[in-house]
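User: I'm writing a short report section on ligand binding and want a predicted complex to refer to. Could you take this sequence and shikimate-3-phosphate and write out the structure as tokens? A short remark afterwards would be nice.
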Amino acid sequence: MKSLVIPPSKTLQGRLIPPGDKSISHRAVMFGALAEGNSSFSHFLEAEDCLHTMQAFQAMGVLMDYEKGKGKITIHGVGLQGLKRPSAEINLGNSGTSMRLLLGILAGQKLEVVLSGDPSLSKRPMKRVTQPLKKMGAQIKGSADANFSPLTIRGGNLRAIEYDNVLASAQVKSAILLAGLQAEGTTRVIEKLPSRDHTERFLYACGAEFKKEGNVLHIEKTERLKAVSGEIPGDMSAAAFFIVGAAMAPGSSLEVENVCLNPTRTGFLNVLKRMGAFLEIHMTQELPEPMGTIRVEGRRLNGTRVAPEEIPSLIDELPILMIAMALAEGESLVSGAQELRVKESDRIQSMVQNLKAVGANAEELADGCLIRGVSHFQGSRIQTHWDHRTAMSFSIASLMTQGDMIIDDVTCVATSFPSFFEEFERLKKNR
Ligand code: S3P
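Assistant: Sure. The structure tokens for the complex follow:
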């Protein structure tokens, strides 16, 4: 644990190139490992979560060329049948994406592998993935009916299923698609609400037997995946801390470049616009992932309502949006966000508890929160519960705080955005 005292500042000024997208970086390593030939990516996210995915595949015999600090990675793919049994259990640290997607891949592999994680990951529900994978034929053991890691998985001989993705979870959808890639028959995933579609984009690009018809995804057993290469766009979920910070702090002026503008990830921009934020968005690339530039200017925002159908497109941005709501004029309501309770921490509870500590009017609801805006926060000690997004949200809140913000632990930020405090120091100004 390393605490940090953040003195108040007033605005954000300048340009930001956000680090590589976390969701896409995980998938780049996974698809690169399963493809035939070499896949090379630039702007790969060198954060702990993605390094855990890399190490997992290295432990299963996949060679990678990676120079620390350069964001460049080449994965020497071993094909869909080439993974080897690791010599020890694979520890995935804090990374839920690594664990859930890896379970989908391993469900099709005739290997026995033990997956574990840190205390936070060990408390996160895995049954949402292990139950459908068991139905497909994988053998998975772990406590509470394979709901919690460590999990022991032995895959192979999978059969297709039809799965209704009621949680609107991209991790669950991806795990089933990755298993479906290795299963006899056509696996179908039905999505009532769209969730991030990076796995689908990789499946298309790698030539998998995959198609999307309306809200139904179809995948068939695929013999080989072709290697793909490219630049990983900037992470919208990382950029969001600075975008929301600049939008809510009057006098700020920020330009964010090369950020992923995939519509399954940009829901919080619509919410900010409804709150009256000044945003200019320019798309510079459409495929394989939309990417572009966002210009933000700061002003006092108004309260808004976030509806359940918007949640999947802004799930990781809710903590920082809750900060903006707590400083906006009027009332805000978030509903249908019960999934926040099973993230790296219970984010409804921890955000509301910390918001109250800084003098905001916030109330917990079973599936969200009710917030009435104040004009500024008071400095307080923030309990992050080892959650990177809580730590970054309250660091940004210091822009609108009288007194020091004390973050109890900032080491957790390294899971997704190791250069966050460096960028914050560079961009924040006292005017
Ligand atoms: C992710 C999906 C989301 C998100 C997580 C990354 C992914 O989780 O919260 O940070 O890369 O697929 P859920 O699918 O559980 O909603």
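A remark for your report: The pocket of shikimate-3-phosphate is lined by residues 23, 97, 169-171, 174, 195-196, 315-316, 339 (CB under 6 Å). The mean pLDDT is 97.
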